[in-house]
Amino acid sequence: MQINANLSALNAIARKQEVSTNNIANISTDGFKASTAVQTGDQIKISPEARAASLNANGDEMSTTEPTEDFVQMTVNQNTHEANIAAIQTQTDMEKALLEIKK
User: Fold this and answer.
1) Where in the chain are the domains?
2) Interhelix angle for 2-25 vs 67-102, to 10°?
3) pLDDT number for residue 7
4) Residue 34 above 60 pLDDT?
5) Angle at 48 between CA 62 and CA 31, to 5 degrees
6) What's the rounded mean pLDDT across residues 62-84?
7) Closest to 9 in 3D by CA, of 17, 95, 34
8) Which of 9, 29, 40, 68 has the greatest number of C-beta atoms within 10 Å?
9) Among 69, 97, 101, 79, which residue's Cα sits nearest to residue 9?
């Protein structure tokens, strides 16, 4: 059924959201390597960013988190999540209508 595809998409969106929030939460953590969530087929692969870290005044590596990218990704995640929820609701409504016709 189509609902399974929507549920799978919701799980992928949740994983992407986790990666973005983790990156933002660690924005001030020296040496933190930001991650990206890349969808490959039905899997979400988490990989560290290939972005070079800058050094702070003490010579420590700073976080490689780019907050603007993560905030944009979180907005995309939210919109995609809402679209999948709407698709599930529409399919549920259609199934209810079919059951009513059958009565």
Assistant:
1) 2-102
2) 160
3) 84
4) yes
5) 20
6) 88
7) 17
8) 9
9) 79
Structure tokens that stand for 54 in this block: 């800058």
Q: In terms of C-beta distances under 8 Å and separation of at least 24 residues, what long-range contacts does 3-11 make, across chains too?
A: 3/88, 3/91, 6/84, 6/87, 6/88, 6/91, 7/88, 8/42, 9/80, 9/84, 10/81, 10/84, 10/85
- HEC readout, the chain: CHHHHHHHHHHHHHHHHHHHHHHHHCCCCCCCCCEEEEEECCEEEEEECCCCCCECCCCCECCCCCHHHHHHHHHHHHHHHHHHHHHHHHHHHHHHHHHHHHC
pLDDT tens digits for range 23-32: 898 888 888 8
- Cα–Cα distance between 54 and 37 in angstroms, integer? 22
What pTM was estimated for this model as a whole? 0.71
Mean pLDDT in residue range 58-87: 86
